[in-house]
Amino acid sequence: MRNHASYRAFLVHRLSGLGLALFLPIHLIVLGLAVEASALDGFLRWSELPLVKAAETILVVLLALHMFGGLRLLAIELLPWSDRQKNWIGWAAAASLAVGAGFVIRTFA
Amino acid sequence: MTNASLGTLKVEIWRGAEEGDFETFEVPSQPSQTVLDLVTYVQRKLDPSLAYRFACRVGVCGSCAMTVNGTPRWTCRTHVQKVASSGRVRIEPLRNLPILKDLATDMAPFFDKGQEALGRFVPSDARASEVATIPPDDPKRKEANAAIECIGCGVCYSACDVVSWQPDYLGPAALNRAWTLVNDVRDGDRQGHLKAVAEDAGCHACHGHQNCVEHCPVGLNPTRSIAGLKRLVVMAALKGEL
């Protein structure tokens, strides 16, 4: 019953949103570390580890998926209906993967 | 058409009301057999106490909608061959509606929501007035026409996850009906229709899963109608009309 592109787009949007919500408190804690330079430097050194960078790539992809998925929803709800709206799911996924690929190239190249 | 049997099917049918269990029947397989044929066979030959609902048997009335292998469908328009998996078919009543008995649901909540969405025409003119002239290529008429063929079978309502998560959600069919009315220039209460669907359980509760679009047996697009209502409600709210 739920085996179709629009439902999968909803799931991706919802799960990426949950992932970002979980990340947000960590992000705020790290920002709080900036008050104390040594603590922040320690964290920044840790964040250079390849595994952490890989996790960061996933985070960037989640963010991109949520953003492009959200733009798709806004377009569906605020613009006149387009029967091409299903193609937008593919475009949103492709754009998100492109952003992720760009991040990987920038980070590891 | 031949009557030669092509083996048997195991047909699991929901028995009981909200509490109940599946009962398995063996039904001879036939060419071009529909799921409604299976249910009819069981009721006529195996267990006359089986309750189910149907009328036209040819995809016009929509009353034979049931859940077949987890998917809401018109059983009269569903060939067994298309849905049977390893010779088994599981038939349940429509989801999101109270079960009266076996495969028959109480459709009252579904139709009540049509009224809650003010899904009825409000006359704007006297009965004796001239018939309104509406060009077929009028953009609003085109929008209304694209959504007008709903026969209220409840398949979209059953397929909608938002209805199951938020039971007071008006649902795709009621909102689709409201959309036809706000696009009907003869209707006398456009603002009333918009107010009715602007509530918490109205158009803004739709998550855009599009299960309704995927399952509508007449190929309507309730998500399109609901998106249209969302736009109109936002515009009306910005103008202070709600």
Q: Give me the CATH fold name of chain A.
A: 3 helical TM bundles of succinate and fumarate reductases
Helix content of chain A: over 70%
- End-to-end Cα distance of chain B: 59 Å
Strand content of chain A: under 5%
Amount of beta strand of chain B: 5-15%
List the secondary-structure elements of chain A in sequence, H or E: HHHH
End-to-end separation of chain A: 43 Å
Subunit arrangement of the protein: heterodimer
What are the key terms here?
heterodimer; A: 3 helical TM bundles of succinate and fumarate reductases; 4 helices; B: 242 residues; alpha+beta; Ubiquitin-like (UB roll); Fumarate Reductase Iron-sulfur Protein, Chain B, domain 2; two-stranded antiparallel sheet; 10 helices; elongated
Write up what this structure looks like.
- In chain A, 84% of the residues lie in helices and 0% in strands.
- With 109 residues, chain A is mainly alpha-helical.
- Chain A has a single domain (5-108), classed as Fumarate reductase/succinate dehydrogenase, transmembrane subunit (3 helical TM bundles of succinate and fumarate reductases, Up-down Bundle).
- In chain A, helix 1 packs across helix 3 and helix 3 packs antiparallel against helix 4.
- The model of chain A has no long low-confidence stretch (mean pLDDT 91).
- In chain B, the strands form two sheets. A five-stranded mixed beta sheet of chain B has the order 2-1-5-3-4. Chain B has a two-stranded antiparallel sheet with strand order 6-7.
- Chain B is of the alpha+beta class and 242 residues long.
- Chain B has helices at residues 35-46, 80-83, 108-116, 139-147, 155-159, 161-165, 172-182, 190-197, 211-215, 222-238, and strands spanning 8-16, 20-28, 65-68, 71-74, 88-92, 99-101, 104-105.
- Chain B is elongated.
- Chain B folds into two domains: 8-105, Ubiquitin-like (UB roll); 108-238, Alpha-helical ferredoxin (Fumarate Reductase Iron-sulfur Protein, Chain B, domain 2, Orthogonal Bundle), CATH 1.10.1060.
- The longest helix of chain B is centred in the last third of the chain and has 17 residues, at 222-238.
- Helix content of chain B is 35%, strand content 15%.
- In chain B, helix 4 runs antiparallel to helix 7 (172-182) and helix 7 (172-182) runs antiparallel to helix 8 (190-197).
- In chain B, strand 6 (99-101) and strand 7 form a beta hairpin.
- Chain B contains ten helices and seven strands.
- Chains A and B meet through helix 1 and helix 3 of A and helix 9 and helix 10 of B.
